[in-house]
Amino acid sequence: MKARQRLLLGVDAGQSITKAALYALDGSEVAVARHATEVDSPRPRWAERDMDTVRKHAHSAISDVIARAGPGYEVVGVGICGHNDGLYAVDRHGRPVRPAILALDSRAHQESRRLSHGATGAAALALTGQKPSLVSPASLLSWLREHEPRSYERTRWALFCKDWIRLGLTGEVATDVTDASAAFTGLRTRQWSAPALDLFGLTDAAAKLPPVLGSAQLAGTVNAQAAELTGLAEGTPVITGAHDVDAAAIGIGAATVGAASLVLGTYSINQVLADRPVTDARWQARSFVQPGQWLHMSTSPAGAVCLEWAVRRLGPWTAAGQPGFAEAVAEATTREDAPDAPLFLPFLYGSPHGPDVEGAWLGLRGRHDRGDLLAAVLEGVAFNHRTHVEALREVFDLRGPVRVCGGGARSAGWTQLLADVLALPVEVTSSDEAGARGAAMLAGVGTGQFTDLEQVTERWVRVICGQEPRPSHAPARADRYRRYLAAVEALGPQRPPESR
Questions:
Q1: Where along the chain do the CATH 3.30.420.40 domains lie?
Q2: What are 405-425's pLDDT values in tens digits?
Q3: Fold of the CATH domain 5-252
Q4: 305-430+470-499 has which CATH code?
Q5: Nearest Cα residue to 104 out of 345, 304, 322
Q6: DSSP string, 194-229
């Protein structure tokens, strides 16, 4: 009987889409499936979703990708990554306490302000590598205890997105070092920190924190119920997994010291890997999947999600009546640069300039059309990336090329815009689903298919496109970026404090 081909499965659970991809051991993609999950906003500032639906869509994506691969394959390892921050609270029976709170949420703005300012914020930065953000587990657990005390009491485990999905596959509770370092781990210890919990007034939350395992460590095996729901064989190894931005860096080959990478996704992700932690309020210094390495992430929820927002309101639409995101990028990137083009501030869900700075189109005239507005959105997102990159560039030697992934990386026009705005060369790899590929690569290491990340990266990752900044565009882009920053400073918060 012919031996079945061995495959690795990577699952990437983002803010709104869960992807599952199967890879052969040579790195070739065998099949991919995607399931969208709607974000609920029952109140101003709230962004959440039903946890059972999250798991159901993950199971469906896995089932679909296995069906698409067809017979003749054997899944020998499963890796999972997911969005960080937020809160997936479960009770002692492993059931949801309440809907998941996503990383687009801002309900905990008062708790974040209290924990991130003054002496507490300075101590948090030194102790954990970051100040608590709006969606930090420190801010959200503080909010939950204050506003939903019954939910807080019922919470047995405070999990992250990938941990909830993995719990459904294996029945085992755990997290990994990359997700754990979102709030409560020591900057150098990679383990839960009692001083950090004390600092945030959350000493009683220590018992709610799951065991911390290595990102490529075996965390359990597929149980009988999950096997029936997904099509995976019972007993298939499942490794712990990682924060999706760490997995994406692995998936595009930006997992060596000094490597810089950007994610054009829901969040604007800008990161540099280093062999020592460097703390600064403008980024988070978090543990990477490998000991002795830290991923310095300068981020904000002002990324490509802005294009999704704009297209759902303005179009274009596909023949099937769906939002035409690819068509929108094509329409926007064919526009000629014009000195009177509108500017866009991409702060629909938050900004790196403070929690109350808001989004806007500026400089609109009657002659501008949808293409002009969409082009401004792409440029505004690129300018926000530049804000983060400029901060990192003050400390780290960023000469490029910078690896780019996410939906926008599929567009040559958008990546060229990014290269022009950043004044850095950018590279795109063959990894269409960088997070899922990175999760599968971790599974390959964790199940012994590869000796280490270096080996699997050499076999699985290749650059397919490079963009150089165009000197002829530099003066105009620099001038527009100055105008963009001036607009951010001049506008500031536009609503009265009681409505923010």
A1: 5-252, 305-430+470-499
A2: 988 888 899 999 999 999 999
A3: Nucleotidyltransferase; domain 5 (3.30.420)
A4: 3.30.420.40
A5: 304
A6: HHHHHHTT-GGGGGGSPPEE-TTSEEEE--HHHHHH
Give the model confidence (pLDDT) of 19-53 as tens digits: 999 999 999 999 999 998 889 999 999 999 999 99
Question: How do beta strands 88-90 and 402-406 pair?
Answer: unpaired
Tokens of residue 428, six digits: 């795109």
**Model confidence at 495: pLDDT above 70:** no
φ and ψ at 172, to 5 degrees?
A: -105, 140
User: Counting every residue, how long is the chain?
Assistant: 500
Query: Nearest 10 degrees: CA dihedral of 83, 38, 405, 316?
Result: -160
Give the helix/strand (H/E) hosting 379: helix 370-393
CA-only gyration radius of the chain, Å? 22
Q: How far is CA 12 from the centre of its chain?
A: 10
Average pLDDT, integer, range 459-486 = 95
Nearest to 403 by CA among 277, 274, 272, 305: 272
DSSP letter, residue 359: -
Phi, psi of 374 (to 5 degrees): -65, -40
